[in-house]
Amino acid sequence: MTAGDSIPRQPGPPEPAPLLRAENLVKEFTVSGGGLLGRAGRFRAVDDVSLEVRKGETLALVGESGSGKSTTARLIARLIDATSGTIEFDGREVHALTGKALHAFRSEVQMVFQDPYSSLNPKHTVERIVTAPLAYQRRPIPGGARAFAAALLERVGLNPDHAARYPAQFSGGQAQRIGIARALAVSPKLIIADEAVSALDVSVQAQVINLLRRLQDEEGFSYLFIAHDLAVVRQIATRVAVMNGGRIVETGDRDTVFGSPQDPYTRKLLAAVPRIRPEWDAARRRNEQARREREEAEL
Amino acid sequence: MTDTLLQVRGLTVGFPNANGPNTVVNSLDFDLARGGALGIVGESGSGKSMTSLAIMGLLPKGAERTGSIAFDGTELTALPERAMRSYRGDRIAMIFQDPLSSLNPYYTVGTQIMEAYRSHRTGVTRRQARAVAIEAMERVHIGDAARRVDHYPHQFSGGMRQRVMIAMTLSMEPELIIADEPTTALDVTVQAQILDLLAEIRADTGAGLVLITHDLAVVSEVTDHIVVMRDGDLVEQGPAERIFTDPQAPYTRMLLDAVPRIDDEIGLLRTMHTEEGR
């Protein structure tokens, strides 16, 4: 599957409005000065960032530590307010939302965090955790909490009989699946995944990446995928925005950004990624094929 | 002098309690050739970090170590703690994942490099030790080392702190460097610089390297012999090229399938338990 294959273009103008459009976002923080006078200064974590997330796509926001990618994610989720700039979600100005409309926004945009354990209440059962977004919305739970939780767990590849367990009884990969189930509970339009697979072992990480892709195929929601790992991003992104020093230095379709990066920083970042030699991978595939043929011949 | 710098045989580490021996490293064998680079790879709980601590004689309380660890022909497991201390940090150096927690925030980096050096070299004056510290910092490409030597750890970035740690180990001119996830906490561009630096140092000094990591791409670039561990067991080992081109164990094959590639076709990542949440 290549970028955009699953989203057929609407015939003729006008182009459908993106699900999310952020324009000229700026976020400044006050920092105490390092000098003797302790003079306060302003630190610009996000500096004139504009981006779009289209319906059903995955926009990956990549960068190193301090690039401003997580702050951008928190601005978009309205966990913090921007110093200036606008965010439009599904046709509404996010900053202006209050009351019921803000409540609705909070269910349409869900977050999945890096550390599954610290983002799950250790004293609550899985059933209570995954139904919490509905309780917060004061919405009835379709079919009752037990059946609803069981169905959610099944969708994320967990044993539905484990709904009465606590987060500590699950492995890291399973706990991250619980976080994903919680995000799914309110049928969001956008899931912001902030380094959601970074803390996982590689074999578990691959499973969770596959799960995230499958869920998107089934549900058609969008991801804003915040990550530092370019190899992971390449597996999941439709489009990529590269951040450095609070700014987006390059945006484009995944294959364009990875295949012919334009910005010097993007090039430096891609060049720094450690690689298993492609010729070793090719030899491994040949050996794997030969092994399979040998095994079949023996049967 | 033998051609084998480090020979590990039947290394077993356990935390015995009422429930049994609780083995975390199970009968591990491997050799590191003089000047060679060996990678120990595994996921969390594989026992790779316990292996490095066992070699250094730094296992936590309650741990039981059996088997043989021969360093340059000397059986380390037979050494009393006092004798082991003269190996550790001197002939065998260790670099950890988090340089901030290995450095004392209250002392300048220069003081710490000097103290480490003087604790292993008798009759060294402060002035001589300071010169060694500055030279070591220059060798790891810390610019303006003569001034930076008087700075505190918090005045360095993560990558620079890891350079300070490497400078500290370098000052001792170790024959073996054990690096446990030395670049895991670093940004990818900084990681590339530190890996280049380690390669440069090995080329200059001929030191052997044991690199412990979860990152298969990193070991593929840095090491020539690879040990794959899982749940305390040795899964398989061999020359890097053989492990990457013709892995024998199903677990190694699964790991290699699961690593996302940056320049490979996009497809469903192959996993052992695709739908079962492990």
Automatic annotation (TrEMBL), chain A:
InterPro entries annotated for this entry? AAA+_ATPase, ABC_transp_ATP-bind, ABC_transporter-like_ATP-bd, ABC_transporter-like_CS, Oligopep_ABC_C, P-loop_NTPase
Q: Where in the sequence is the signal peptide annotated? A: none
Matching entries from Gene3D superfamilies are given as: P-loop containing nucleotide triphosphate hydrolases (3.40.50.300)
| Gene Ontology MF term list | ATP binding; ATP hydrolysis activity
The organism's place on the tree of life at top rank: Bacteria
Q: Which SUPFAM superfamilies match?
A: P-loop containing nucleoside triphosphate hydrolases
PANTHER family from the UniProt entry:
D,D-DIPEPTIDE TRANSPORT ATP-BINDING PROTEIN DDPF-RELATED (PTHR43776:SF7), TRANSPORT ATP-BINDING PROTEIN (PTHR43776)
The entry's family comment says: Belongs to the ABC transporter superfamily.
Q: Any idea what this protein is called? A: ABC transporter domain-containing protein
Source organism (scientific name): Glycomyces algeriensis
Give the organism's phylogenetic lineage.
Answer: Bacteria, Bacillati, Actinomycetota, Actinomycetes, Glycomycetales
From TrEMBL, chain B:
Listed CDD domains: ABC_NikE_OppD_transporters
Biological process (GO) annotations?
peptide transport
Where is each ABC transporter domain found? 6-256
Write down the superkingdom of origin: Bacteria
Keyword Transport applies: yes
Membrane topology per the record? Peripheral membrane protein
| Location relative to the cell | Cell membrane
Which UniProt key words apply to this protein? Answer: ATP-binding, Cell membrane, Membrane, Nucleotide-binding, Transport
Q: Name one GO molecular function term.
A: ATP binding
Q: Can you quote a single GO CC term?
A: plasma membrane
> Does this entry carry the keyword Cell membrane?
yes
Question: Which Pfam families has this protein been placed in?
Answer: ABC_tran (PF00005), oligo_HPY (PF08352)
- Which InterPro entries does the protein's record reference? AAA+_ATPase, ABC_Ni/Peptide_Import, ABC_transporter-like_ATP-bd, ABC_transporter-like_CS, Oligopep_ABC_C, P-loop_NTPase
Q: Which PANTHER family match?
A: DIPEPTIDE TRANSPORT ATP-BINDING PROTEIN DPPD, OLIGOPEPTIDE TRANSPORT ATP-BINDING PROTEIN APPD
According to its UniProt record, which protein family does this protein belong to?
Answer: Belongs to the ABC transporter superfamily.
User: What is the protein name given in its UniProt record?
Assistant: ABC transporter domain-containing protein
Which source organism?
Glycomyces algeriensis
